[in-house]
C-alpha cells in the first residue's frame, strides 16, 4: 500500500474549523478528488487517514500533517493538487510526498513553533511578562481537559519564548499596537497549547490581552539540540521519481 | 455604495463562543458576489441554528435559483445562539450573512423560511440585531422588505405585524417574480416608496401584504371579517405551485457545511405533494397536487450532486417516498450504480407495508443499513380511521415482523397523542401493539435480540387541514395519557425491556397550537415572550412554557380571549378562521366534509389511484397530478469511480 504524507494549512476564517470538522471535510474531499483511498477491514470500513496532533480550534496553522493509505499508486503532486482543489479555500493542501516505507510520521514530531499576535499589547509589557515566565521554574495553570479540571505546568514544555517585533504590524484589523510572541513548545501530556502559555503569562505577570490573541502554528517536527525544528517530510523527499526506486 | 464586511469585528468575538465555525461560511456551494454589480439583493434566513438551517431544502433551492441570475445576489443568515447574541449586542455587531458577512439591514429583501412556527421569536432577534424595526409599519425605504415563506406562512397572521409580506407555497417562481418587481421599481427610482412597492407585490395576487387587510372582531372575540383596506388589492391571496419539477432540478450545487449539521447528505426531492390524505398533515394538504420528478432526472441529480459535494449519503426525500410511481426502479437503479462504492442511499420510510422493506433492502445492498421507521400514527384501528391512516393491525405486525426476519434488529414506530376524539383506551392500544410486535418478532426470528422504539409526538391542529376546527387536548391530559402508556408498556417486564419509549410533553405542543392557529392578536404575545428573553423555542433546553403562559395571560385578556380560547376550543362551521382569506386551493366545504367524515370514522382514498375526490386544489390552482410511470430505467452507464 502506498502511503502519502500531507502538509496542510488552516488559514483565515477557516481556522475556526475544529479537527472533527476538518476530518469530515477531508473525507469528502478525498471522494470529490477521486483519490484511490484504501479502506480498513471490518464491518464498517473506514478510509485510511491518520492525523498528527491537530492545532486547537481557532488557531491557524501552516503546518498540520496527515497520512493517507492508497489502494492504487498515485502521483503525490497530482494528489496534492486535486485535494487542494476539492477543499474550501482556507483549508489548503500545501505539500504531499510519498512516505518512506517503514517510517512513522508521529516519530518525527515532538515539538511545534507558534506565533501569537497580541493586538493591544505593548511589546514592552509582553517582554516583561516573558522575562518573568522564563525566570520561573514552574508555571501552573488550570484547564478543563477530557479528564476534568487539571492543573499542570506550562513552563517545562516551553523550549523557547521571545518577543519578536516592536513594530506595530500585522493587526491591520484593529489598527492598534500589536506585540508578537514566538514560541517553541515540546509535545507533552497533557499538551501545552498557545492559550496555556498565555494563561501562564497571566499567572506570572497579570498579562490580560484586551482582544483575543491570534495564534498560528508555523512548524511541527523534531526539535534539535540547537533549537531548530526539522521538517517531518524532509526525510521522505526524494529526487528519484516515483516508481523508479 | 459598497457594504463592508462585519467579519473583522465578528472575528474578535468568535474565540469566545461555542462552535464558531457555524458563523464563518466558506461552505462548498456558497456564493459570494460583488455587491455593487447586483441590482437586487436578497438575504435568506432560516430562523433556527445553523446546524438545522443549513441542510434546509427550501433555502438551498431559493439561494441557488436567485444566485443563478447575474444581477441578483442572495446570501444566507441563520439564528445566532444566545452566547453570540450577547456579544454582538455588547460590541454593536449587526445580524450578518455567513457568505460575505454583510449586515442583513443593507439588503433589499429579507426572505425568512418558516418551516415551523417555533421560529417566530428568532425572527424578532434577527430583526432587532439587524437594526430593522420590529413592526413593519415603522420601516422605511432604507430597510429590507421582510418576506415570510415556508409552510408556516400559510397562516402568517401571528407575525403579520413583523413581516411586510408572505408567500404561500412553492418559492422557485415566486422569488423570481418578486425579484422582477423590485428590480423594475428600483430602476424607476423607487416611485411611491415602500408603500408602492408593497402594492405592486400585492397586486400579483400571490404575495400577501398584511397591512393592506383589516381584521374586524365580534364582541365574543371571534373574527368578523378580514377585508382589504384599499380597492386595488385582491380579496384572497393564492398559493404558488411549481409544476414540472424536472425543469427545476435544484439543488444542483448543494451546500456542504464544514460544521456538523443534522444531516450530511445529498437530498433530492423525488416528488412534491401528497394525496394520502392524513387529516392531521398540513404538509400533505397544502402541497397538492402530487408532482413527481422523473426517474431520469432523479438519477442525474444524484450523480451530479454527489460529484459536486463529495457526500457519501443520498436521501430520496418527499412526504411519502415509497409512493413514487417508479420507486422500485429508482432504488434498484441507484443501488446498481453505486454498488461497490461507499455511497449509501436512504429513504424516509414511513409507509407501513412490506414493499417498504423490499425497498430498504435494495438500498442497503451496499452494506450500510439505515433504520426502519413506520408511522401508524394512531394506536387503535378506530383512531386510525379518524385520522385517515389506513393501516390495519395485521398489516402493521406483518410488516414489522418481515423487517425483523430480514435482519433488522431495531424498528421505530411513530404515533401521535392528543388526536381528536382520542380516549385513554386509544393510546393504551399503542402498548398492546408494541407488545404484539415484539412477541411476533421473537417468534419469527427465534431471537430475543430485537427491539422497537415507540416515539410519540403531540398532535397540533394546523390551518388548511380538516382538523383546523378541532380542539386540542390540554397538556395535563396528554401527560397523563403518556404516563399511563408508559406503565402499560412496562406492565410486561420481558416485552417492556425490548421497547424504547420516546415522547414530548404536552406543553410545547400547546404553544405550537397557539401559534399555528393564532390571529394577529397573538403577535403581541410573541413580542412579549421575546422581550422576556424567549429564543429558540424549538429547543427544549431554551423553551419556557411558563414564559408563554405568562405572556398570554398578560396580553390576551385585553382582547377578551385567552390561551385556551386559541387551543382547546373547538371551532364551528361558520367561524371565520384567521387564514380564510389565504387560498391553499383546498375547498373549505370539502375540508369541513372531511372533518365530519373523520368524526364518523369514514376513510378517504388517494386521488392518485382513485378518481378525483374534489378537494378543490387542481381547478382552483389550475394544476394537475403529474406522475409517471415513464417506463425508463436507470442504466449503469458510467461505472462510478470505485472508492473502495
Ligand atoms: C417532509 C419533511 C421531512 C422529510 C423530507 C424532508 C424534505 N423533503 O426535505 C424527512 C422525513 C426526510 C425529514 C427529515 C428531517 N426533518 Co423534517 N420536515 C419535513 C417537512 C414536513 C416538510 C419539508 C419539505 O417538504 N421540504 C421541501 C422543501 C423544498 O420545501 P420548503 O422547505 O417548504 O420550501 C419551499 C417553499 O415552502 C418555499 N419557501 C420556503 N421558504 C421560503 C422563503 C421565502 C421568502 C419564499 C418566498 C418561499 C419560501 O419555497 C421552497 C421551494 O419551493 C418540514 C415541516 C414543514 N412544514 O416545512 C419538516 C421539518 C423541516 N423537519 C424538521 C426536522 C427536525 C427534521 C429532521 C432533523 C428530523 C431528524 N431528527 O432527523 C430531519 C432532517 C432533515 C434534513 N435536514 O435533511 C423540522 C425542523 C425543525 C426546526 N427547528 O427548524 C421541521 C420544521 C418539522 C418540525 N416542525 O419539527 N423531514
Ligand atoms: S383536486 Fe382532485 S386530483 Fe387534484 S389534488 Fe384534489 S382530489 Fe386530487
UniProtKB/TrEMBL annotation, chain A:
Give every DUF2344 domain span: 3-194
InterPro entries attached to this UniProt entry: DUF2344 (IPR018768)
Q: Name one Pfam family in it.
A: DUF2344
NCBIfam families assigned: sam_1_link_chp
Question: What is the name listed in the Swiss-Prot or TrEMBL entry for this protein?
Answer: TIGR03936 family radical SAM-associated protein
User: According to the entry, what is the taxonomic lineage of the organism?
Assistant: Bacteria, Bacillati, Actinomycetota, Actinomycetes, Micromonosporales
Automatic annotation (TrEMBL), chain B:
Pfam families given in the database record: Radical_SAM, Radical_SAM_N2
As given in the record, the signal peptide range reads none
Alphabetical list of InterPro entries matching this protein: CHP03960_rSAM, Elp3/MiaA/NifB-like_rSAM, Radical_SAM_N2, rSAM, rSAM_horseshoe, rSAM_sf
Q: Which Gene3D superfamilies match?
A: Cobalamin-binding domain (3.40.50.280), tm_1862 like domain (3.80.30.20)
Among SUPFAM superfamilies, the record links this protein to: Radical SAM enzymes (SSF102114)
Q: Which residues form the Radical SAM core domain?
A: 260-502
Q: What is this protein called?
A: TIGR03960 family B12-binding radical SAM protein
Amino acid at each position: 500500500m502506498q502511503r502519502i504524507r500531507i502538509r496542510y494549512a488552516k488559514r483565515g476564517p477557516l481556522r475556526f474549523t475544529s479537527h472533527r470538522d476538518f476530518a469530515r471535510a477531508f473525507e469528502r474531499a478525498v471522494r470529490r478528488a477521486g483519490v484511490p483511498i484504501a479502506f480498513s477491514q471490518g464491518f464498517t470500513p473506514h478510509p485510511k487517514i491518520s492525523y498528527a496532533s491537530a492545532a486547537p480550534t481557532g488557531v491557524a496553522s501552516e503546518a498540520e500533517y496527515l497520512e493517507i493509505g492508497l489502494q492504487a499508486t498515485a502521483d503525490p503532486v497530482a494528489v496534492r493538487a486535486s485535494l487542494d482543489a476539492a477543499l474550501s479555500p482556507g483549508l489548503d493542501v500545501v505539500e504531499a510526498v510519498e512516505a518512506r516505507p517503514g517510517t512513522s510520521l508521529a516519530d518525527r514530531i515532538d515539538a511545534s513553533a507558534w506565533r501569537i499576535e497580541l493586538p493591544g499589547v505593548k511589546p514592552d509589557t509582553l517582554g516583561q511578562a516573558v522575562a518573568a515566565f522564563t525566570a520561573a521554574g514552574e508555571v501552573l495553570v488550570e484547564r478543563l481537559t477530557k479528564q476534568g479540571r487539571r492543573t499542570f505546568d506550562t513552563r517545562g514544555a516551553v523550549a523557547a519564548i521571545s518577543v519578536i517585533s516592536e513594530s506595530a504590524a500585522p493587526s491591520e484589523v484593529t489598527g492598534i499596537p500589536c506585540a508578537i510572541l514566538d514560541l517553541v513548545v515540546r509535545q507533552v501530556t497533557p499538551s501545552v497549547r498557545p492559550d496555556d502559555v498565555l494563561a501562564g503569562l497571566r499567572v506570572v505577570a497579570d498579562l490580560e490581552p484586551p482582544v483575543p490573541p491570534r495564534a498560528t502554528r508555523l512548524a511541527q517536527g523534531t526539535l534539535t539540540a540547537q533549537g531548530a525544528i526539522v521538517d517531518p517530510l524532509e526525510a521522505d523527499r526524494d529526487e528519484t521519481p516515483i516508481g523508479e526506486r | 455604495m459598497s457594504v463592508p464586511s462585519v467579519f473583522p469585528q465578528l472575528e474578535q468575538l468568535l474565540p469566545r463562543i461555542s462552535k464558531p465555525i457555524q458563523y464563518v461560511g466558506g461552505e462548498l456551494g456558497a456564493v459570494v458576489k460583488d455587491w455593487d454589480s447586483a441590482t437586487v439583493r436578497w438575504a435568506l434566513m432560516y430562523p433556527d441554528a445553523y446546524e438545522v438551517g443549513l441542510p434546509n431544502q427550501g433555502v438551498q433551492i431559493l439561494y441557488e435559483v436567485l444566485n443563478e441570475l447575474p444581477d441578483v445576489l442572495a446570501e444566507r443568515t441563520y439564528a445566532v445562539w444566545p452566547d453570540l447574541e450577547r456579544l454582538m449586542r455588547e460590541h454593536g455587531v449587526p445580524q450578518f450573512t455567513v457568505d460575505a458577512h454583510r449586515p442583513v439591514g443593507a439588503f433589499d429583501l429579507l426572505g425568512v423560511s418558516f418551516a415551523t412556527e417555533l421560529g417566530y421569536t428568532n425572527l424578532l432577534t434577527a430583526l432587532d440585531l439587524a437594526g430593522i424595526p420590529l413592526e413593519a409599519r415603522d420601516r422605511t425605504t432604507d430597510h429590507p422588505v421582510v418576506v415570510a415563506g415556508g409552510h408556516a406562512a400559510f397562516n402568517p397572521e401571528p407575525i403579520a405585524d413583523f413581516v411586510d409580506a408572505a408567500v404561500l407555497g412553492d418559492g422557485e417562481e415566486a422569488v423570481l417574480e418578486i425579484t422582477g418587481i423590485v428590480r423594475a421599481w428600483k430602476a424607476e427610482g423607487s416611485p411611491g416608496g415602500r408603500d408602492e412597492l408593497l402594492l405592486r407585490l400585492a397586486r400579483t395576487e400571490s404575495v400577501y401584504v398584511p397591512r393592506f387587510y383589516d381584521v374586524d372582531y365580534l364582541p365574543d372575540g371571534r373574527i368578523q371579517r378580514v377585508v382589504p383596506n384599499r380597492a386595488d388589492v385582491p380579496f384572497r391571496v393564492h398559493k404558488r405551485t411549481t409544476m414540472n419539477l424536472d425543469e427545476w432540478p435544484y439543488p444542483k450545487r448543494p451546500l456542504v457545511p464544514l460544521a456538523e449539521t443534522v444531516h450530511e447528505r445529498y437530498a433530492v426531492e423525488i416528488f412534491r405533494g401528497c394525496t394520502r390524505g392524513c387529516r392531521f398533515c398540513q404538509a400533505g394538504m397544502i402541497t397538492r397536487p402530487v408532482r413527481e420528478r422523473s426517474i431520469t432526472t432523479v438519477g442525474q441529480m444524484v450523480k451530479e450532486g454527489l460529484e459536486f459535494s463529495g457526500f457519501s449519503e443520498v436521501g430520496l426525500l418527499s412526504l411519502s417516498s415509497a409512493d413514487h410511481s417508479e420507486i422500485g426502479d429508482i432504488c434498484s437503479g441507484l443501488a446498481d450504480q453505486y454498488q461497490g462504492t461507499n455511497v449509501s442511499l436512504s429513504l424516509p420510510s414511513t409507509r407501513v407495508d412490506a414493499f417498504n422493506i423490499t425497498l430498504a433492502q435494495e438500498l442497503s445492498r451496499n452494506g450500510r443499513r439505515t433504520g426502519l421507521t413506520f408511522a401508524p400514527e394512531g394506536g387503535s384501528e378506530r383512531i386510525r380511521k379518524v385520522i385517515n391512516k389506513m393501516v390495519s393491525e395485521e398489516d402493521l405486525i406483518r410488516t414489522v415482523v418481515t423487517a425483523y426476519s430480514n435482519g433488522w434488529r431495531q424498528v421505530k414506530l411513530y404515533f401521535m397523542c392528543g388526536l381528536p376524539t382520542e380516549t385513554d383506551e386509544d393510546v393504551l392500544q399503542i402498548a398492546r401493539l408494541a407488545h404484539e410486535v415484539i412477541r411476533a418478532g421473537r417468534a419469527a426470528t427465534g431471537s430475543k435480540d430485537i427491539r422497537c422504539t415507540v416515539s410519540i409526538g403531540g398532535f397540533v391542529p394546523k390551518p388548511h387541514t380538516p382538523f383546523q376546527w378541532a380542539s386540542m387536548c390540554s397538556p395535563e391530559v396528554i401527560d397523563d395519557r403518556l404516563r399511563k402508556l408508559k406503565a402499560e408498556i412496562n406492565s410486561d417486564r420481558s416485552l417492556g425491556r425490548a421497547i424504547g419509549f420516546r415522547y414530548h410533553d404536552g406543553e410545547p405542543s400547546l404553544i405550537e397550537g397557539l401559534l399555528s392557529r393564532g390571529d394577529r392578536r397573538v403577535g403581541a404575545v410573541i413580542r412579549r415572550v421575546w422581550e422576556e428573553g424567549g429564543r429558540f423555542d424549538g429547543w427544549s433546553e431554551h423553551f419556557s412554557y411558563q414564559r408563554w403562559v405568562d405572556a398570554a395571560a398578560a396580553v390576551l385578556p385585553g382582547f377578551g380571549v385567552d390561551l385556551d380560547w386559541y387551543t382547546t376550543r373547538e371551532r364551528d362551521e361558520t367561524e371565520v378562521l384567521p387564514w380564510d382569506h389565504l387560498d391553499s386551493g383546498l375547498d373549505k366545504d370539502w375540508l369541513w366534509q372531511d372533518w365530519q367524515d373523520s368524526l364518523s370514522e369514514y376513510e378517504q382514498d388517494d386521488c392518485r389511484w382513485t378518481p378525483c375526490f374534489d378537494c378543490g386544489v387542481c381547478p382552483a390552482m389550475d394544476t394537475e397530478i403529474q406522475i409517471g410511470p415513464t417506463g425508463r430505467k436507470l442504466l449503469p452507464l458510467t461505472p462510478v469511480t470505485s472508492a473502495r
